[in-house]
Design brief:
The chain is α+β, with helices and mostly antiparallel strands. 37% of the residues lie in helices and 23% in strands. The strands form six sheets. The protein has a five-stranded mixed β-sheet. It has a five-stranded mixed β-barrel with strand order 14-15-16-18-17. A hairpin with a 4-residue loop joins strand 17 and strand 18. It is globular. The protein starts with 7 loop residues before the first helix and ends in a 6-residue tail after the last strand.
Length: 494
């Protein structure tokens, strides 16, 4: 495929649309949903006395630089006994997107927003997700608030859930907040405009780190993967930028994990069902044990998250540069997570990678349908209303959300590969250091170590397994299909 550089963006957009349709996803909203949308003209306001007015708190959002679909706000407050009250406000999407509506039916089809290299396909129409149901700066919005009382060790000792009206005082971005927290950048301007916000964010950072440490002591895995974000110069794809973890992302991540745990436990205590995110014991623990042995570390024969975490911490200290490569290999060997409906009296498997037994998805209802389901369950439980779903429907929805999420991940990966193929098409014949990321009867896959790109090993893969480091030669790319093909360097040409 030949092309001008200024076509990169539109080429990737066309590929994304085609791939979505081929995979059975819907790139467009239905006529019925768009008709409903026209009738939604104002954001919801506090309508009953159970909704608390919390607009005076120092709420702020931290998200990607370009995010407009803001699902959550956070705030923290020191208590007299040394503990910290953390509050997470989650957008009350259900207030405007009603169960069984055409907009809801559309959201339930794809089940998630789809973030491809050149275009985003939101789960909800943008009038909602980036406006009326987004916790936008300077706007009053309805929210479901999860409150956590956290001790200085990072353990949640008490919690509560209630409905509230909130006001986002500052829209912040991960990278600039992290640079400031680390002392490597200036304080972001929106923080300076809100009295007390800087101190509040430092408290949030402190307690989030304590929560993270508490989980890790209990066996949460300190995994770090390399995620590549396409960078466009106008319409031209100019680079793949590696997105890394940072302190600001960890504030949100650890508060959300905590809030999801509180949500799951609350629903269980109320005798309500829930949809849980489950990562069972790793599919290929035997290979994880072998991988640890190559690093001089011995893991037990049976899956053990605390032992695996101890190994990961040691390796991160020893070789931080290559740690994402090891993390990626471990993630591939652990296998995919899935959604499961859990009903009162049942015990569901926990989330192996997070070292938590009680884990729902509840904090991103603009972007994930499971979170919107959870929100409806929560609001019914808070009101003392009947469960809004039948058990069979929840089972079906959990299975459907798992299936659709797997398809969405494949679409996002395929478009990311098309973007990578665009960048690599002029480098056929070059050799690169790589890490084996997949090895099965379906094929062997490797990711380049210096460029965040994965491709298929077409020749020389015998005896190679996940986690092995190899040297490869780029032999071909197919931008349209997102194919990047390697051979083991030094292999004779066929």
């Amino acid at each position: 495929m030949s092309m001008n550089n200024d076509q990169h963006c539109s080429i990737l957009q066309n590929i994304a649309r085609r791939v979505m349709i081929e995979r059975g996803l819907q790139p467009d909203f239905s006529a019925q949903a768009l008709s409903e949308l026209k009738k939604i003209t104002i954001a919801a306001t506090a309508s009953d006395e159970s909704i608390i007015d919390l607009r005076n708190l120092l709420w702020a959002s931290i998200d990607n630089d370009d995010s407009m679909d803001l699902d959550q706000l956070t705030v923290a407050e020191s208590m007299e006994d040394g503990r910290v009250k953390v509050q997470v406000a989650v957008s009350d999407v259900d207030a405007l997107v009603h169960l069984g509506s055409a907009i809801d039916e559309d959201a339930a089809f794809n089940t998630t927003s789809i973030y491809t290299a050149a275009v985003i396909y939101p789960m909800l129409p943008e009038k909602l997700s980036t406006d009326l149901t987004s916790l936008s700066q300077g706007e009053d919005r309805l929210a479901v608030v999860v409150e956590m009382i956290v001790d200085r060790d990072g353990k949640v000792t008490d919690s509560g859930i209630y409905r509230a009206i909130v006001h986002n005082q500052a829209k912040l971005a991960y990278n600039s907040v992290a640079a400031w927290l680390d002392g490597e950048g200036e304080i972001p301007e929106p923080i300076t405009k809100v009295e007390g916000l800087a101190e509040n964010l430092r408290l949030q950072d402190e307690i989030a780190q304590a929560m993270k440490n508490y989980r890790e002591v209990n066996g949460a895995l300190s995994l770090e993967t390399i995620e590549a974000k396409p960078v466009f110069d106008g319409e031209q794809l100019s680079n793949l930028e590696i997105e890394t973890r940072n302190r600001a992302k960890e504030i949100i991540e650890d508060f959300m994990i905590g809030a999801n745990g509180v949500t799951a436990r609350y629903l269980s205590a109320q005798g309500f069902p829930s949809i849980r995110r489950v990562v069972r014991n790793p599919e290929r623990w035997d290979r994880i044990v072998q991988l640890a042995e190559t690093h001089g570390y011995s893991l037990p024969d049976d899956p053990n998250s605390a032992a695996l975490e101890a190994f990961l911490v040691k390796e991160k200290v020893k070789d931080p540069l290559r740690f994402p490569d090891l993390s990626l290999a471990i993630i591939k060997l652990m296998g995919n997570g899935e959604y499961m409906a859990q009903f009162p009296g049942q015990t569901a498997p926990g989330h192996f990678g997070l070292a938590v037994k009680d884990y729902s998805h509840s904090t991103a209802p603009n972007r994930r349908y499971t979170d919107l389901i959870t929100q409806r369950l929560l609001k019914a439980a808070l009101k003392g209303a009947p469960v809004p779903y039948k058990n069979d429907d929840l089972d079906d929805l959990a299975r459907h959300c798992t299936e659709q999420e797997d398809i969405v991940n494949k679409v996002e990966r395929q478009i990311a590969k098309s973007a990578a193929a665009l960048l690599l098409q002029s480098r056929i014949g070059e050799r690169f250091n790589a890490l084996v990321t997949g090895a099965s009867p379906k094929g062997t896959w490797a990711r380049l170590i210096d460029i965040p790109v994965e491709g298929r090993l077409m020749h020389g893969f015998e005896g190679i397994d996940v986690g092995d480091k190899i040297r490869v030669e780029l032999i071909s790319v197919d931008v349209d299909r997102g194919f990047i093909d390697f051979r083991l360097a030094g292999m004779p040409r066929h």
